Amino acid sequence: MTAPTPPTPPFRDPRLPFAKRVDDLLSRLTLEERIGALHQFTPAVERLGIAAFRTGQEALHGVAWMGPATVFPQAVGLGATWNPELVRRVGEAVSRETRAMRARDERVGLNVWAPTVNLLRHPLWGRNEEGYSEDPRLTSAIATAYTRGLRGDHPVYWRTAPVLKHWLAHNNETARDTASSSVRPRVLHEYDLRAFRDTVEAGAVAGVMPAYNLVNGRPNHVSPYLREQLRTWTEEELLVCSDAGAPSNLVDSEHYFDTHEEAVAASLRAGVDSFTDHGTDSSVIVGRLEGALRQGLLTEAEIDEAVRRQLSVRFRLGEFDPDTDPYGGGGNGDAPGAPRAEGDPDEHAFDTPEHRALAQEAAEQAVVLLKNDGLLPLTPAHTRVAVVGLLADECKLDWYSGTLIHRSTPLEGLYERFGADRVEFTEGVDRVLLKTSAGTFLHVPPAPDTPDTARGAEGALDPALLAGRTDLAPLTTGPEGTELALVDWGEGVLTLRAPDGRYLSVAEDGYLRASADQPGGWVVQETFRLEPHGGGHLLRHLGTGLPLQVAADGVKVAPEDPPAGEDAATGRDAVAGAGPEVFELIVTEHGEETVARAAAQADVVVVVAGNDPHINGRETEDRTTLRLPAQQELLLRAARAANPSTVLVLVSAYPYAVDPTDLPAMLWTAHGGQAAGTALARVLAGDVSPAGRLPQTWYAGDADLPGLLDYDVIGSRQTYLYFGGTPLFPFGHGLSYAAFAYGELTARAGERGVRVSFTVTNTGAVTADEVVQLYTRAVDPSVPRPLRELAAHRRLTLAPGETADVSFELPLSVFAFWDVAVGRWRVEPGRYELLAGASSMDVRQRTALTLYGEPAVPRAVLEHGLDAAGFDEESDTEIVDRTREAGDAVTPVAGQEGELVFRDCDFGSGAREVSVEVSGEGTVELSLDGGPVLAGLSTSAPTPGRYDYVTLVAPLASPGDPVAAAGVHEVRLRLRGALRLARVGFSG
Hints:
Oligomer: single chain
Low-confidence stretches: 330-342, 566-577
Distance between the termini: 89 Å
Shape: globular
């Protein structure tokens, strides 16, 4: 007799709803297995035939870190397209390549950590390249499109499971794991939460990742907003994945908890479901979770809740349904021996002609024409072009790029489009020799004739761990030196390149080699600084912080402390010659001179300037200025002086402040991926009319910027929404080779929204795209409202003479603001302007209408009191955590006297007494309508801790007036000392 076939467990039955299948599988897992599932690298459960799983596959603008893949423009470049449909197709291509790469490399995950929806509030943020826009509505439109492409369109199964980064109010790399963003309720709801909310509500998001920073004094990894906000926006089981190392930061750097057991328990209770910590070693996190459970800090039910969310994602990815998964079978790990569904071969498309064409299309649509006095487009058949600059022959990648399969630099694109015989190139770098104090020169030994492998080409789960090359001989010194290309990236940061194109780099053994194809890595090992010293220069390696020395076995970094016998002042041993070397810098060729010569012989000069995404502005490092690096400014001036027909092309991850007055043409594009050069050449030649639009304000100078850590976009008048100055280029700006006329704008209000209509006509001579932008403005608001706010946009392609009818249906919520007095959204009655045009400041048509809305209601302070963080205005205060778990309090900025203003406070028939809930030590003074102080409340002694609050009470009266407050007044509170104010109460 044959043994009966065991019944299929319910979790393997595709006919059952996912929720029942998840419950069944969860019930079969032991406690140990459930706890193990909470680390990023979940082990296999072989007894159930369940494969290992990992959260986290970087896919910001292509599959990253896992080897060759199609590389699309940086996220900020995708934002500059203002084209959600294009970005959806990019997301679809990325998800298909993820599936294809997963089929041949099980390290590739399907839980993708993308997109980044942090708003580009401050242009000096080092990770500006990762976001889409400073505007929440544009950001959510692009992010929603990308997630829909990543998710796929099957009603049940997901091609990949996207996770939004980085929750919340995260725009600084400076002290990024210890700095707190002070975010008042209006900014929280109207700005920082909005991009997340709209994208989550669109239904293609699998989860979010909290950011490293704190918000209102509380780390994002224990944020109550995960439950209070995020999880209320959708019925999907969202998977919250910690950022790398962040759980440990709660104790190690933030000192928010005393023990790691407390930290992981608080994170899990707040809503974190997967812990990314200690790399692939899950034992540390598992041990902390087990300890938290033993100590009663966690319950099994709370663990199950987190595991259930991860399992929900795995079921959606088709992991347990290999026969029915339309995306090729299997999720982040098929059961051993399980059959794979064949599916549509397009679902495993990789580096296809369609993907290459899409990469080029995206790069073309991302190009922004900032200025054009008629110089562009160029005529390829009759134009001799000099292309110059540090990025003229570069196709730069960033930290979240894949490895290039195809590569197109601006020079290569111009060669292809204009002909190599009509294009002259010079990079504009200085050529230098480095002479030692002994009279010898730095020498690069010849490299073996073997093919180089690009950094990361083999793929890595954590590319930060990739080691530098040690198979090449170190640099030496000798009578014949090697001429090096010195590239000055600004602020004294240099790279040095050998004649064969390899960058000087320091590996783990400390020796200097010409070994890197590009600067890169988590800690860049290819950057240096020349420091004046003893009549020459020390050459300091920035990756290690150490100067170079010349040793018998090669050039290497000098030890931190001079060995015994060395001179402490110079670090040099008089006998052995050890210690830091003092070099003489000999410039054999000045870059600006080569640029001037090339420019003088050309009809048109194209200066390609910008940044290297691994240097001076990147993850872990904010910029310090908007200015173009001095060396690149020098090259630009040299080109312009030699030839007035100079085009400046900025290829960068962020805005620059560059005076365009003397330039006839100027363009910007983000690092455009594998097809960047081809795309740029086609735009310059007029094959494509540029239609990219700026996704963020380009300010005229550093003086226009708020503090990097000032997150109050309303109070500090930040972004196009509130900035009242004159920008260099406004939000939404971008020119075309065509011209467009806008017809009359009409608006009709209904019960649920406003319908807006107008026409756009291409009055130019070429087919071109126009990005139609519609803004709203409250005419006479009772509180500070945006000067203009993007309500809708559309990218149109119009032939010469063609007219398009444009209409938008705006829900009434577009006109709402967060009313702190009632703690919810409210449409204020009054007049609103509708503005249609080609940018936030290029308004072509406008109209106005009246909305009846909801009248304001004064704050009923006798009944509800005042939450300190619910102020209308403030000065010299910051919001902090009321308790570790939830709530806000307000404290004066250290060493300052703070003030809070609450308008329209209704005291009814009168109040006789005021109470304040405070901790710490200090004084609260209350006045009405700017009058004298009516009550002062001071702690008699410091409270035991910052979360130990006391209630202070004082009469609210003045001499001869036992009832000082009656009717509606403005309340002003002055705060002094190291105290936290949580609430204010009044009694009659």
